[in-house]
Design a protein that fits this description.
This protein has 2 domains: 152 residues, 2-Layer Sandwich (Nucleotidyltransferase, domain 5), CATH 3.30.420; 166 residues, Nucleotidyltransferase, domain 5. The chain is built from 10 helices and 10 strands. Helix 3 links the parallel strand 4 and strand 5. The longest helix is centred in the last third of the chain and has 30 residues. Bound molecules: adenosine-5'-triphosphate (ATP), magnesium ion (MG) and fe (iii) ion (FE). The site of fe (iii) ion has 4 residues, from helix 4. Keywords: Acyltransferase, Cytoplasm, Iron, Metal-binding, Transferase, tRNA processing. GO terms for molecular function: tRNA N(6)-L-threonylcarbamoyladenine synthase activity. InterPro entries: ATPase_NBD, Gcp-like_dom, KAE1/TsaD, TsaD.
């Protein structure tokens, strides 16, 4: 069975084809990072307009790459939410129009389920059940996953998502948008122990987390350095990056260990953009459980995870009818 997947929830346009026999056979992506960088963040209207320009050529390129004809497809999956309303509408309208014109069924996909299942696109795939750490730009959640569609929320950030904290901290350190990846590169050059930041909610006796205070702690440290020296030199900035990253990674790794203990599961899946972080990977790989990450290129938004999640929900495929998007849409109700 062949499923075309379309992602347009934020600032990446992704189109991919997943074959249930052969795996991923086409994967095209355009990131708008350069376009939004000059504004220091995603400008929703620009994002929507750019998706409109990209969807047709990317779909053509994806079909060519996979040597597949539109008629060969069994279903068209698309991200229905959560995300930016206008951006979601572009992919949703395109997917439904394409399906209607070619008499194919559609499968609306939850973006976070896409992230959550993306490690199954790696060579070394996890098996159910597993604990999932979903760490992206908009979400930080720990889940117990016992099957496709069987997700239980064990804990989550009560304020900023980890990726958001990385980006905001990057911004206040003067790094270009999006600051997360850049901050983690600079952390490699940092000296350990010079800056100790708080580990919020480390001992909260639940699996919830908080990252917004950490950003304030970094701001306070930056201000102190500026007061004393007038400026933050490169080495100091790198040391702050390392201190910040260590604090986030400490909290994530502690909470994940607690979740593994609580569930008794011995597999861990890490998904979402922050899953690309080298320190988090290093730390979690030391745990005495099997740890699965998506391929690096599939950590951030992409069409492949939507095509894959769509393929896992082929039984939910439906004829094109009225469609809507769900900009706010929890994957599972909060406990
Ligand atoms: P969501 O999926 O919750 O709607 P999103 O789609 O914006 O949010 P992703 O695309 O999964 O999130 O991930 C983007 C986030 O990952 C950004 O916040 C980015 O800074 C962060 N990120 C990417 N690479 C790294 C890295 N190496 N270290 C830390 N953070 C990173
Ligand atoms: Mg993005
Ligand atoms: Fe995402």
């Amino acid at each position: 069975m062949l499923v075309l997947g379309i992602e347009s929830s934020c600032d990446e346009t992704g189109v991919a084809i997943y074959d249930t026999e052969r795996g991923l056979i086409g994967n095209q992506l355009h990131t708008q990072i350069a376009m939004h960088a000059q504004y220091g963040g995603v400008v929703p209207e620009l994002a929507s307009r750019d998706h409109i320009h990209r969807l047709v050529p990317l779909t053509r390129a994806c079909l060519d790459e996979a040597h597949v004809d539109l008629q060969d497809l069994d279903a068209i999956a698309y991200t229905q939410g959560p995300g930016l309303g206008g951006a979601l509408l572009t992919g949703t309208s395109f997917a439904n129009a394409l399906a209607f014109a070619n008499d194919k069924p559609v499968i609306p996909v939850h973006h976070l389920e896409g992230h959550l299942l993306s490690p199954m696109l790696a060579e070394d795939k996890p098996e159910f059940p597993f604990v999932a750490l979903l760490v992206s730009g908009g979400h930080t959640q720990i889940m117990a996953v016992t099957g496709v569609g069987k997700y239980e929320l064990l804990g989550e950030s009560i304020d900023d998502a980890a990726g958001e904290a990385f980006d905001k901290t990057g911004k206040l350190l003067g790094l270009p948008y999006p600051g997360g990846a850049k901050l983690s590169q600079l952390a490699k050059l940092g000296v350990a122990g010079r800056f100790e930041f708080p580990r919020p909610m480390l001992h909260s006796h639940d699996l919830n987390m908080s990252f917004s205070g950490l950003k304030t702690a970094v701001l306070t440290a930056v201000n102190k350095v500026k007061e004393a020296h007038g400026t933050v030199d490169e080495q100091t900035r790198n040391d702050i990056c390392l201190g910040f990253q260590d604090a986030v990674v400490d909290v994530l790794s502690r909470k994940v260990q607690d979740a593994l203990k609580q569930t008794g599961f011995n597999s861990l899946v890490v998904a979402g953009g922050v899953g690309a972080n080298w320190k988090l990977r290093e730390r979690l790989n030391q745990l005495k459980v099997r740890v699965f990450f998506p391929p690096l290129s599939l950590c951030t938004d992409n069409g492949a995870m939507i095509a894959f999640a769509g393929a896992m929900h082929l039984q939910d495929a439906r004829a094109v009818g009225a469609f809507d998007v769900k900009p706010r849409w929890p994957l599972i109700a909060t406990r």
